[in-house]
């Protein structure tokens, strides 16, 4: 989503379409225009000044994804021949996932995710990278493009691995710089640095925008669960939050946001979790019961080994089979995917100031048990899918938004399964951060989701994007939150 606060226009992209919505009347939004790009996927859309920027990936075949493009268009103007006029098409590389312009619109940073594709002899894993588009003479004049890759970090990979940076796919002679997959971008306040989430690699890259270089890769470490509980099984008869004091998880954040609060630069991460699964047969996920005793180190407690054989305990939970081995090849640690919540980190070194622990999963279990860790298959009801994602990533917290309201800092956390928004208020020293509210909008639990959608009784299923607009810029003069539901295909406006 991208919002033009002067025109009260919202641009929303999905698959091969972007819509132009007049949101001046928040209770009666109107689609004013749309653009369709067949056999393509629009991965992100942004608005700056008088221009729209969006990333497009050709979906004709796997190889065509190598030629990702950033489009630059003039903004929507009713009854104008220049409305949505294409100014530039800029080739940027393999699978641009997110784009972000600076406030002056003169620089656009592109996360080149470069996911692997193909199988057997045709398997390819392009280099992940960061694209920098500059408009030295203004957006409508000739752009300059520079692509940055991570090759210089190949020799440092063993060192980075100790900090929690993952090198997942090592087969077929693959290198670390090809395994890296940049996804989400956020800037510091003066826009001299870009922080870019490398989700599957469990890391954040820091780019110096003044020098146009990738300065650092910061590992995010792992989460221990000795103080928290989780529901680790979809075959345990419902909601069962248990403590497992030995297992770990990688944070693997999707959305990340920078903010400056109480003299501290922070990065807030939505710890969705993600794994790699390729057509050539590689899949890093392995259920707990598939870890035979012979491959487990003596360091793993007997209680955990027993739980791994039990489908109602850890037997169904999906772990990675890549990390955690000792020098003999046995697993001395077991890591699953995602943090089932969000984390506040210090931007300077990525040290943790606050983690939500098990709060989102617990609050969902008590406030909305019918949708607890539910899947989002349209042909089934919520009741039929409740608990279905407990063995995977649980609530799957995937997006965050930050807002200052009345001198206080709030964090909104969108969780994919099936669609909740948790609201937290941040304490002065961050550790005092508190849960405030859980929002969800499913009217009935016993009807298929597709029927509820047709009856307009459902929205915000898989909240892929959240955008806070303060009262001074909003259409109705009140603080609002735009919510894009990816699975429901909906746009919602919530008053905050």
From TrEMBL:
Choice-of-anchor I domain span: 51-496
Pfam family, one: choice_anch_I
Composition bias, Polar residues: 383-392
Start and end residues of each stretch annotated as Disordered: 371-397
NCBIfam families associated with the record: choice_anch_I
PANTHER family: MESENCHYME-SPECIFIC CELL SURFACE GLYCOPROTEIN (PTHR46928)
Name of this protein: Choice-of-anchor I domain-containing protein
């Amino acid at each position: 989503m991208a919002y033009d606060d002067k025109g009260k226009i919202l641009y929303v992209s999905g698959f091969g379409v972007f819509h132009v919505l007049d949101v001046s009347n928040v209770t009666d939004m109107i689609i004013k225009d749309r653009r369709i790009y067949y056999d393509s996927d629009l991965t992100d859309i942004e608005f700056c000044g008088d221009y729209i920027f969006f990333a497009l990936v050709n979906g004709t075949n796997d190889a065509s994804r190598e030629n990702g493009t950033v489009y630059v268009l003039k903004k929507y103007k009713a009854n104008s021949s220049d409305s949505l006029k294409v100014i530039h098409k800029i080739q940027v590389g393999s699978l641009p996932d997110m784009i972000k312009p600076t406030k002056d619109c003169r620089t656009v940073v592109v996360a080149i995710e470069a996911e692997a594709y193909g199988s057997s002899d045709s398997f390819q894993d392009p280099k992940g990278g960061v694209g920098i588009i500059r408009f030295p003479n203004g957006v409508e004049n000739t752009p300059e493009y520079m692509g940055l890759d991570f090759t210089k970090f190949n020799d440092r990979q063993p060192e980075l691995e100790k900090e929690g940076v993952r090198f997942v796919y090592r087969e077929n002679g693959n290198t670390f710089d090809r395994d890296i997959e940049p996804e989400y971008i956020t800037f510091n306040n003066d826009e001299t640095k870009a922080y870019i989430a490398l989700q599957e690699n469990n890391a954040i890259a820091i780019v110096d925008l003044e020098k146009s270089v990738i300065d650092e890769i910061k590992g995010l470490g792992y989460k221990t669960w000795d103080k928290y509980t989780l529901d680790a099984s979809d075959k345990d008869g419902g909601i069962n939050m248990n403590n497992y004091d030995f297992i770990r998880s990688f944070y693997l954040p999707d959305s990340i946001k920078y903010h400056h609060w109480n003299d501290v630069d922070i990065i807030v991460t939505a710890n969705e979790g993600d794994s790699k699964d390729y057509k050539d047969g590689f899949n890093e996920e392995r259920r707990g019961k598939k870890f035979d005793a012979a491959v487990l180190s003596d360091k793993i407690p007997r209680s955990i080994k027993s739980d791994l054989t039990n489908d109602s305990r850890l037997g169904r939970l999906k772990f990675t089979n890549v990390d955690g081995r000792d020098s003999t090849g046995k697993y001395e640690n077991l890591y699953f995917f995602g943090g089932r919540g969000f984390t506040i980190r210090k931007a300077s070194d990525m040290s943790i100031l606050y983690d939500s622990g098990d709060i989102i999963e617990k609050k969902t279990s008590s406030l909305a048990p019918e949708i607890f860790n539910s899947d989002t298959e349209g042909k089934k009801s919520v009741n039929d899918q409740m608990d279905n994602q407990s063995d995977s990533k649980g609530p799957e917290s995937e997006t965050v938004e930050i807002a200052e309201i009345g001198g206080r800092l709030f964090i909104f956390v969108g969780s994919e399964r099936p669609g909740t928004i948790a609201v937290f208020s941040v304490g002065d020293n961050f550790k005092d951060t508190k849960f405030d509210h859980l929002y969800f909008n499913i009217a009935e639990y016993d009807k298929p989701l597709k029927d509820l959608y047709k009856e307009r009784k459902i929205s915000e299923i898989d909240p892929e994007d959240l955008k806070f607009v303060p009262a001074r810029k909003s259409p109705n003069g009140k603080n609002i939150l735009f919510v894009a539901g990816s699975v429901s295909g909906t746009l919602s406006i919530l008053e905050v």
